[in-house]
Amino acid sequence: MTSLGFEQVTVRYAGTPAVTDASFTVAEGEWVALVGPNGAGKSSLLRAATGLVPHEGAVRVGDRPAKALSWRERARCIALVPQQPELPAAMPVLDYVLLGRTAHIPYLGRESAADLHISESVLDRLGMGRFAARPLGTLSGGEIQRAVLARALAQQAPVLLLDEPTSALDLGRRVEALELVDEVRREHGLTVLSVLHDLTLAAQFAERLVLLVCGEVRAVGTPEAVLDPTVLAESFGAQVRVMAGADGRLVVVPYRRTTP
Amino acid sequence: MTASAPTGGGVRARRHQLRLPGTVAALVLVGAVVLASCIGPVSIGPDRVVGTVLAQLFGAHTSVPPVDQAIVWNLRLPRVVLAALVGAALSASGTAYQGVLRNSLADPYLLGVAAGAGLGATVAIVSGGSGSVLLPVAAFLGAVAAVVLTYLVASMGSDRASGYTVILAGVAVAAMLTAVQTFLQQQHSEEIRQIYNWLLGSFSVASWRDVGLALPYLVVSMLVLLAHRRVLDVLRVGAEEAGTLGLHPTRTRLLIVAAATLGTGAAVAVSGLIGFVGIIVPHAVRLLTSASYRVVMPVAMLGGAAFLVLADLVARTVTAPGEVPIGVVTALVGGPFFLAVLRSRRTRQGLL
């Protein structure tokens, strides 16, 4: 198990900061959700952690700075479920999941029987075994989400980053996908950092929330501490009611500001 | 594990993907080589072709008349072998460019190779070096310089050149180099015919010396590209995702482009600009077999070699004793094929 720490992380695009001095830590085995309005810098933080954009400050994986890791080493520590994954339509699901083994296969080598076994096990675990030979282009949204998650799990990295993993899914598939993430997180003790737009789902699944507004960390803490109606109204520019659901967890409901 | 049976079936299918198309392509290549060695102004039987090859390579005793041996070994085989090597290299490079740039319209000449080689050859011809070893060297250097220029232009102002930026830069560089070439041709109108003939591509003067000249570069290029066939499959999800999966996104793509450019440059240097091979052969292989580069790369090499051997056979027999430029043959076959690919259902569905 490995923690993921952000220490005064700043990300700039052509000089303009997208994230400024962000500091927080995701503990080993913890699920933290990054929430905040569009353009707050949530994806930029994930991109910084995976080396896709340069950053100032330090992202630490365990006690090692992510900057010091090679692409290969980083892929063995951090797996990413992208917001809009590239899906080669003709690629069979099993081949796609095997891509997750890239960091474990010699550069010009080929997959071993172990790589194949791991990929098949992950597919079976996610209930996707019978789709192994199917081209990605023939899958439904929910099945694609499982295939992408399977690829990330095949990386066997202790840290799992999810960039808005449920945006393309219907209500039922959304909860299903997050429940699946939670199950595998507990099974393997994964450290999870996810960007989630749906604050209610974030409150249901994440142990702590990080509220990011205009590139700055506005609040860090339990859902109860972060989901304050006044703070949310100010951050999102929206009127919201925060209520306790039947199970005691918070429910965030936006409502219309003006009536015609 | 109860669900392992269906996945096991998928794996078995995966492992056998290459065997059938690979065997078929290899047999077609052998057939094309023998056929092209038999046919010519003097017909020579396949048994004599095989006898000649065995005698020359292994010193085996043969009853083939020396005249037939000379025709096969000194005239036809260098030409056939060079066509096969160039066809394989152009197909491998086209496959690689399509993979790295993630653009199914990419061909080996996309990044300015054709314009660079054309300019290099034009400079060599107008400065009087047409018959010497200078022409292929100048074409090769021009081709490589054009791709380097394209990459430099594309990465200006950013640390990572995207596929589209590279393609656009290639278009701009090619336009500039072609303009210079046109200017030079206009200034030296007496050499235009010679330049034009070279640009159309030909194997008519191929000798074992040409084969030896190009062989090291072509072999290195093809081996590097063949070794990267799994890496090319990883790049199908894009450079960024490939990075998060553990591949160095820029270095990996640069290495593949460099190998493809080396092969294309060497091919152009010994045969001129032969169009369409690098784009239609990979697509034909994809349509007939699989989209995986593990299948496409080796099968396209074999298929490209066979295609160019047969195209050259047509080029030198159809108007015998004259010759049609081989670029005309490949484009006449390639054009309609390309339209068929564009119209095919699989392309419309984005399965390429």
Helix content of chain A: 25-40%
Please identify, by name, the CATH architecture of chain B.
Answer: Orthogonal Bundle
Say what the CATH topology of chain A is: Rossmann fold
Structural class of chain B: mainly alpha
CATH H-level homologous superfamily name of chain B: ABC transporter involved in vitamin B12 uptake, BtuC
Number of strands of chain A: 12
Q: Taking Cα atoms only, what radius of gyration of chain B do you get, to the nearest Å?
A: 21 Å
Shape of chain B: globular
Largest sheet of chain B: none
| The CATH class of chain A | Alpha Beta
Which stretches of chain B of 5+ consecutive residues score pLDDT under 50?
Answer: 1-13
CATH architecture of chain A: 3-Layer(aba) Sandwich
Radius of gyration of chain A over all CA atoms, rounded? 19 Å
The backbone outline of chain A, from C-alpha atoms, is: globular
What features would you describe in this structure?
Chain A has 260 residues and is an alpha/beta fold. Chain A has a single domain, classed as P-loop containing nucleotide triphosphate hydrolases (Rossmann fold), CATH 3.40.50.300. Chain A has nine helices and twelve strands. In chain A, strands 6-7-8-3-9-10 form a six-stranded mixed beta sheet, sandwiched between helices. A four-stranded antiparallel beta sheet of chain A has the order 2-1-4-5, with helices on one face. Chain A has a two-stranded antiparallel sheet with strand order 11-12. In chain A, α4 (113-125) packs across α5 and α5 (141-154) packs parallel to α6. The mean pLDDT of chain A is 93. Chain B is mainly α and 352 residues long. Chain B contains 16 helices and no strands. In chain B, α2 (19-38) runs parallel beside α14, α5 (113-126) runs antiparallel to α8 and α6 crosses α7. The longest helix of chain B has 36 residues, at 66-101. The two termini of chain B are 34 Å apart. The A-B interface holds A 50-52, 70-72, 74-76, 78-80, 82, 85-92, 94-95, 99-100, 102-103, 105, 107-110, 116, 120-121, 123-124, 127, 129-130, 132-133, 135, 137, 155 and B 1, 3-4, 6-11, 13-14, 227-228, 230-231, 233-234, 236-238, 240-249, 290-292, 346, 349-352.
